[in-house]
Design goal:
This protein has two domains: about 170 residues, Orthogonal Bundle (N-utilizing Substance Protein B Homolog, Chain A); about 200 residues, 3-Layer(aba) Sandwich (Rossmann fold), CATH 3.40.50.150. Strands 5, 6, 7, 8, 9, 10, 11 and 12 form an eight-stranded mixed β-sheet that branches. A four-stranded antiparallel β-sheet has the order 2-3-1-4, with helices on both faces. The longest helix is centred in the middle third of the chain and has 20 residues. The protein has 19 helices and twelve strands. The chain is globular and about 75 Å long. By secondary structure, it is α/β, with parallel strands linked by helices. Helices cover about 45% and strands about 15% of the residues.
Length: about 450
């Protein structure tokens, strides 16, 4: 069973992640002011009820711009901590209810969640968590639930620590379909280690164009390998860090930096980066001297990619197009295909995925991945390389797709990866010679995203 850390340890961990104590937003904001907790409640509803991803929900909430940076951070932390710990929160709330809420009582349920996560995991003083939650219960219908809200939250303040101490946190916070799939693929011990990483905010990783050792010193960062650095938690506004405005580096999880490195020396070579946005891999290839063409179907995402390249003072050709129908003037020496997928390997950074993705979506995505793989293979010159990658932990979106391609395309062969190519991470090389990173790898340093990648070569000269 998972055991709840002591209060002092949890408070220290929270401050390490945020740089500030929590629950310090105004208990009762002045009339007309933006209430961080009220905005957190709205964002939660957009994610859980409307099914929009968290980044879109945050970007679509214009009131956040009126908050001070500290209160914006608190709003985001409320939502992300709840999404990470929702299984535990719901189980604790359920234990304090005399009878279950009706399905239609979504606002009441979310109010309870919002108050409970502050009491159980964010060290907000109980009186503040209770009173600010009750303040949000406005209108005739919600007002009628104030007694219930008050009773449940006060009981959690008294009994919550004991309730959480008895929970199986990893199991509760992982949706059943993911738990079953991952246990079948990796074993329960590994899944528990991954789920423990998912429960905490990740550190910030960046990729530098040059001089990684020098930038590690300037940014007080750890050199992970290659051009990747890991910064301490609680960085605040990334754009204010040294080197950002000068285009010295870009944000990119360490695991996400590995697939592009599998192409080896790319200087002067023609490389197609398919499904390229947000552009971290495009930047890697351009910085290494490749003649890159980045292709993505979204004009909005491509605009952000081009803005990032401009900041980084890197150049690449771009095309807004459906990869399946895109026809370049010639074939590529190498193709990098970072396929659309369920993104279940990125729960560290995107905890909403655990609440938004469903089992049946994986099969539908796998069909698209097969089509994209076939197209990518057709764009490679004889003798050229193809790297297929997904940020998914699902076998259906990784090795099974490669097996399907190899069974249909005798002119394609796997080129095994050596641990030396990926900073000696032997545990990330599969028996077939593919790349498989797990969130629990390098756990003491904060883990990494879950990625699968396979390197292929088209036979011929």
């Amino acid at each position: 069973m998972n055991r709840k850390p002591k209060k002092a340890a949890r408070k220290k961990d929270v401050r390490q992640r945020t740089g500030k104590p929590l629950g310090t937003g105004p208990a009762k904001p002045p009339q007309g002011a933006v209430n961080p907790r009220a905005e957190a409640l709205k964002i939660l509803a957009v994610v859980l009820e409307d099914g929009r991803n968290l980044d879109a929900a945050l970007a679509g909430n214009r009131k956040l711009d009126r908050l001070e940076s500290r209160d914006r951070a608190f709003t985001r932390l409320l939502v992300t901590t709840l999404l990470r710990r929702m299984g535990q929160v719901d189980a604790a709330v359920k234990a304090c209810l005399e009878r279950p809420l009706k399905q239609r009582d979504t606002q009441v349920r979310n109010l309870l969640r919002l108050g409970a996560v502050q009491i159980l995991f964010l060290e907000t003083p109980p009186h503040a968590a209770v009173s600010t939650t009750l303040d949000l219960a406005r209108g005739p219908r919600l007002s009628s639930f104030k007694g219930l809200l008050n009773a449940v939250l006060r009981r959690l303040a008294r009994e919550g620590e004991e309730l959480v101490a008895g929970q199986d946190a990893q199991r509760l916070n992982t949706p059943r379909w993911l738990w079953e799939s991952w246990c079948a693929a990796y074993g329960e011990e590994t899944v528990r280690a991954m789920a423990a990483i998912h429960a905490d905010d990740p550190p910030l990783d960046v990729t530098v164009k040059e001089d990684p050792a020098g930038w590690a010193e300037r940014l007080d960062a750890t050199l992970l390998g290659g051009q990747s650095l890991r910064l301490p938690k609680g960085q605040g506004d990334v754009a204010k860090l040294p080197g950002y405005g000068d285009g010295a580096w870009w944000v990119q999880d360490y695991a996400a930096s590995l697939p592009a490195r599998l192409l080896g020396e790319v200087k002067g070579r023609v490389v197609f980066d398919l499904c390229a946005a947000p552009g971290g891999k495009t930047a890697q290839l351009a910085a290494a001297g490749a003649k890159v063409t980045a292709v993505d179907s979204s004009a909005e995402r491509m605009a952000r990619l081009k803005e990032n390249l401009q900041r980084l003072r890197l150049s690449a050709d771009t095309a807004v197009a459906d990869v399946l129908t895109w026809e370049p003037p010639g074939l590529a020496d190498a193709v990098l295909l970072d396929c659309p997928c369920s993104s279940t390997g990125t729960l560290r950074r995107h905890p909403d995925i655990a609440r938004l993705k469903k089992r049946d979506q994986v099969a539908a995505l796998a069909k698209i991945q097969d089509q994209l793989l076939q197209k990518a293979n057709a764009l490679v010159k004889p003798g050229g390389q193809l790297v297929f990658a997904t940020c998914s932990l699902q076998p259906e979106e990784g090795p099974e797709r490669i097996a399907a391609l190899l069974s249909q395309e005798p002119g394609v062969e796997r080129v095994p990866i050596a641990a030396e190519e990926i900073d000696g991470l032997a545990m990330a090389v599969t028996g077939e010679g593919d790349l498989r990173t797990l969130p629990s790898l390098r756990a003491k340093e904060g883990g990494m995203d879950g990625f699968y990648a396979c390197r292929l070569r088209k036979r011929g000269t």
